[in-house]
Design a protein that fits this description.
- The complex is a heterodimer.
- By secondary structure, chain A is of the alpha/beta class.
- Chain A has a single domain, classed as 3-Layer(aba) Sandwich (Rossmann fold), CATH 3.40.50.970.
- Chain A is built from 11 helices and 9 strands.
- Chain B has a 7-stranded mixed beta sheet, sandwiched between helices.
- The radius of gyration of chain B is 27 Å and the shape is globular.
- The chains are: A alpha/beta, B alpha/beta.
- Strand 2 of chain A pairs parallel with strand 17 of chain B.
- The structure holds thiamine diphosphate, iron/sulfur cluster and magnesium ion.
């Protein structure tokens, strides 16, 4: 019916995917935009994990960063502003085998989509959620976002943002059933890749805040952090990625952190100078919602019919 | 008289029951007295006997209204007929009232007529509280002045003889009494009670059966009141259910796998029913954090190749609007059930209205052609979900299914559906996508295109709500959006061509044609039948497809001198000040005017009540006497 055929398992033993197999056309972000680094990191993970493009779905909302799926050669869903997470969860709910990457901006996730953010973390469905935090609304041209630093001049607050910014990692660590929170920066490819990789390996919702440069609208926000690595605090040990010696050497400030300790994670998350990067928290034992939503998946039509007749019986006179 | 023994009652020659073609009974009480359970059982017994039945609950405005309050009327109405019953009917023939105050609320809703028999609990006459006794006496006088045939009965006193706790037992006693009055089959009542209380054990079942028996005997001993409503022959097995239960069964029969929802009256009970049953047919209910998320979840599941559905009511529709637009734009198949309630805003959550037609058709920004259908009966609530799912997939589009609070809560026997395995969801297509076929490979002539599903190698595309080309690539050029919109519009045109013109109920020409949609079918057809019997030249037509509209309407309308819609939504009164020819008219009338360029009138209200056949009949008479008599 409707042109749908029987279940058919992919059975091609010797497919090898190169980076090109994940490259979906020229990205049209501004020169120097941090989004590109994230795209490259994700493409590398797909390649290293040999994810079949047809079983990988990139889901996003609306914003510069939400253009992400268009530049991947996987399946993609570029939906509504703020609503990437419900869509991603819906996809996962009955297709648990699909690998999902979510791209969402600081406005997309922490403002218009904030309700979904709280609940998607609680649903804890297996996916990588990348918060592209450029501290601004990029696509709509420089309006204040929930993460805009206080005092920064924007088109909606030309005399400077009035309120202190929201801390996305601290907030996420306050949500029920949180299972993975990490922080990284777009300008350190080794740390970015390694962090996204542990996020990918975690089963559950891996929330990764990526400080993302927007040379067009928030040119100076991350300059100091970028120029002076001592303003970053490299978390080591626990679930944090281990960098190769040379990459690690770039961080004068390092701290061993027990990412299984939620209280410790919350303390570290609150810290902004130096800004912690690495895995703040991970609990692999938290329940995943897809373990419930997949109930009855694959039930045969014959069994469905039987079940249905039994349901009819309940109303029979 | 309550001292008469059962034996004596049996010995007493009972008068032959009066044969009637139909009978409407109400049980009204404070909430929590079990009136609804008694009425539902009475309805089920009648359905089992082969009668036509329509049951509807009387729901108080508040969750826990104070006892003996006018607004607290809780209960049930059961209309039983020899033929199929399609609506709640006009005024009740018989009312059992457990206190007098609750009757006021129903009187205000015009539920009774002079001559309606009221069996009124009389314990209040001797209540220790002065104010209660006075209120009771006063009400008695007022009811009688209205022409109600009030008969005081010692229900509680009689019930006390068999039950330790009358507060929980009286409803079954009343059921037994009603079974006597309308000659219901007692064994069927016992069976039904055994079924209803199955989980509570033998002892509870027996206790309730004793109460029924006692109520029956009480009726025989004390009431000079007996009817017979001969049943018809039913040849097919029946299900007794309400519209929301039918919708839930429809969801399961349609092979839908995922219902994402957020609780909202009067839609919620669809998901209540599914929550228990769905996994037995391989489906799951997701209670989302809000309606936006519910819709997004369903859209996501559908994008991933699963059959998905969302269920909501007016305020939820408002929130789902943006996703609905996306589903149209990106051609995501989806079934969206809208159980309409009174609006605008939070409106009348538990009451009926057909006020969301225009919001459904046009409520999203931009041009958003989609399929909108409206079941007119409880049986159609079930079957239309199956249709909706097929249409959604065949036309790669969201399908809205509009029911309302009247269908949602009305209980009726329907023929047990014979389910086709074909209805159930087919396994996912995971075969490689055909080379050379694009993600939106629109057939220029029909607008139709096949849909790639994640897992299909070679079909990778990015679904986007931005204007896009056949390749699903974002495109801002002047040509692409025009093409996309045209393709999506064309699908509806193609669907319309495949539909049959609606069938006229009555003569195919005449003085007046009444056009309706949704839950008003039963009342309209009953009123039209009566009017035709009176010699009036009136016919009716009921639309199931609202988008696209069924074909041939103009040709049908031309054969009538007047065409009017009857709807449960707002229109200015004809004589409303400041309106004149700018009078705002009912929603379907607006749609039909646009569609046919004909002068279509309307008659509608937003009283929150199903429109009774008598009210429609009166309006038909008024219209035809005013305009139609001078041919
Ligand atoms: C419902 C809705 N409201 C507003 C917009 C306009 N809009 C598009 S993107 C955006 C903000 C984007 O900021 P962010 O999420 O931080 O993403 P960035 O562009 O910075 O990557 C807004 C307000 C929209 N598309 N939809
Ligand atoms: S505006 Fe900023 S975020 Fe958007 S593409 Fe340009 S640099 Fe990147
Ligand atoms: Mg941003």
């Amino acid at each position: 019916m409707f042109g749908l055929k029987d279940d058919w398992e992919l059975d091609v033993p010797d497919r090898y995917f190169s980076l090109e197999d994940y490259e979906g056309g020229t990205a049209r972000w501004c020169p120097g935009c941090g989004d590109l680094a994230v795209l490259t990191a994700v493409q590398r993970i797909c390649r290293d994990e040999q994810l079949p493009p047809e079983r990988t779905v990139c889901v996003s909302g609306i914003g510069c960063s939400s253009r992400f799926p268009h530049y991947m050669k996987t399946y993609g869903f570029h939906g509504l502003h703020g609503r990437a997470l419900p869509v991603a969860c819906g996809i996962k709910s009955r297709r648990p085998e699909l690998k999902i990457f979510v791209a969402t901006g600081d406005g997309d996730c922490c403002s218009i989509g904030a309700g979904h953010w709280v609940h998607a973390v609680r649903y804890n469905m297996d996916m990588v959620v990348m918060l592209f935090d450029n501290a601004i609304y990029g696509l709509t041209k420089k309006q204040t976002s929930p993460t805009t630093p206080i005092g920064l001049s924007t088109n909606t607050h030309p005399r400077g943002a009035w309120l202190p910014p929201l801390n996305p990692v601290a907030a996420t660590l306050g949500f029920a059933n949180v299972s993975f929170v990490a922080q990284t920066v777009d300008w350190n490819p080794a740390h970015l890749y390694a962090t996204l990789k542990v996020a990918y390996d975690h089963k559950g919702l891996s929330f990764v805040r990526i400080l993302q440069r927007c040379p067009t609208y928030t040119k100076d926000v991350f300059t100091e952090l970028q120029k002076d690595p001592s303003q970053l605090l490299l978390l080591t040990g626990g679930d944090s990625p281990t960098l190769d010696a040379q990459s690690a050497k770039m961080f004068p400030n390092q701290q061993a952190h027990d990412s299984r300790d939620l209280e410790a994670a919350r303390r570290v998350a609150d810290q902004t100078a130096p800004l912690p990067i690495g895995v703040l928290f991970r609990d692999p034992a938290r329940p995943c919602y897809e373990d419930f939503t997949t109930v009855g998946l694959g039930m045969s039509p014959a069994d469905k019919l039987k079940g249905l007749e039994r349901e009819f019986d309940k109303f029979a006179v | 008289m309550s001292t008469t023994t059962t034996e004596a009652a049996r010995a007493r020659p009972s008068a032959a029951p009066r044969r009637v073609a139909e009978h409407i009974v109400e049980i009204v009480s404070d909430s929590g007295e079990g009136a609804q359970k008694a009425g539902q059982t009475y309805g089920a017994v009648s359905a089992k006997m082969g009668n036509g039945v329509w049951t509807v609950e009387i729901i108080p405005a508040e969750i826990k209204p104070p006892a003996r309050s006018r607004a607290g009327a809780s209960g049930i109405r059961v209309r039983v007929g020899s033929e199929a019953v399609t609506n709640t009917g006009d005024e009740a023939d018989l009312v059992v009232a457990l206190n007098e105050q609750v009757l006021y609320g129903r009187i205000e809703q015009k539920a009774y007529r002079p001559g309606t028999i009221v069996l009124l609990e009389n314990k209040w006459a001797t209540d220790p509280r002065d104010d209660v006794r006075e209120a009771y006496a006063k009400a008695l006088g007022e009811f009688r002045a209205l022409g109600l045939d009030v008969r005081e009965v010692p229900l509680e006193e009689a019930c006390q003889k068999v039950a330790q706790d009358v507060r929980v037992g009286k409803n079954m006693f009343v059921l037994g009494m009603l079974c006597y009055i309308t000659s219901r089959d007692l064994d069927k009542a016992f069976e039904e009670v055994a079924f209803v209380f199955k989980k509570k054990g033998e002892q509870v079942i027996r206790k309730n059966q004793d109460l029924i028996r006692a109520g029956h005997a009480f009726g025989a001993e004390t009431l000079e009141l007996r009817y017979e409503i001969p049943p018809r022959k039913v040849d097919r097995a029946q299900l007794v259910l309400n519209g929301n239960q039918a919708t839930a069964l429809g969801v399961m029969a349609a092979g839908i796998e995922m219902v994402a929802m957020y609780p909202i009256t009067p839609a919620t009970s669809v998901s209540h029913h599914l929550a228990g049953a769905f996994q037995n047919v391989g489906g799951v209910v997701h209670q989302a954090e809000d309606e936006i998320a519910a819709m997004g979840f369903a859209v996501g599941a559908s994008y991933a190749g699963k059959t998905a559905c969302t269920v909501t009511s007016g305020p939820g529709l408002a929130l789902k609007t943006e996703f609905l637009g996306l589903a149209v734009m990106a051609e995501v198949p989806l079934v969206m059930v809208l159980v309409q309630r009174g609006g605008p805003s939070t409106g009348l959550p538990t009451k009926v209205e057909q006020g969301d037609l225009l919001a459904s058709l046009y409520g999203q920004p931009g041009d958003t052609p989609k399929i909108v259908i409206a079941p007119a009966t409880i049986e159609e609530c079930l079957h239309f979900v199956v249709t909706a799912r097929k249409l959604a997939e065949a036309f790669r589009t969201p399908v809205m299914l509009l029911t309302d609070a009247n269908l949602a809560t009305g209980v009726q026997p329907i023929p047990r559906p014979e389910v086709d395995a074909d209805w159930l969801s087919p396994p996912l297509d995971q075969t490689p996508w055909q080379k050379g076929v694009t993600a939106y490979d629109w057939d220029e002539d029909t607008g139709l295109s096949p849909r790639p599903i994640p897992g299909q190698a070679g079909g990778e595309y990015v679904l986007t709500g931005l204007a896009h080309t056949r390749l699903a690539k974002v495109a801002y050029d002047p040509h692409s959006n025009q093409t996309g919109c045209a393709m999506r519009s064309r699908k509806l045109a193609v669907l319309r061509e495949s539909l049959k013109p609606p069938v006229v109920n009555g003569d195919r020409h005449g003085d007046l044609l009444v056009v309706g949609w949704g839950s008003t079918l039963g009342s309209i057809e009953e009123a039209v039948a009566r009017a035709r019997k009176d010699g009036l030249s009136v016919s009716s037509l009921h639309l199931r497809f609202l988008s696209p509209l069924e074909p041939g309407l103009k040709e049908i309308f031309r054969r009538f001198r007047q065409v009017m819609t009857i709807e449960i939504n707002y229109s200015d009164a004809v004589d409303a000040p400041h309106t004149g020819e700018h009078r705002r008219i009912a929603q379907l009338a607006q749609v039909l005017r646009t569609h046919t360029l004909m002068d279509i009138d309307c008659w509608s209200n937003v009283a929150g009540q199903p429109i009774a056949p008598r009210a429609i009949h009166d309006e038909l008479v008024r219209r035809l006497q005013k305009n139609g008599g001078n041919r």
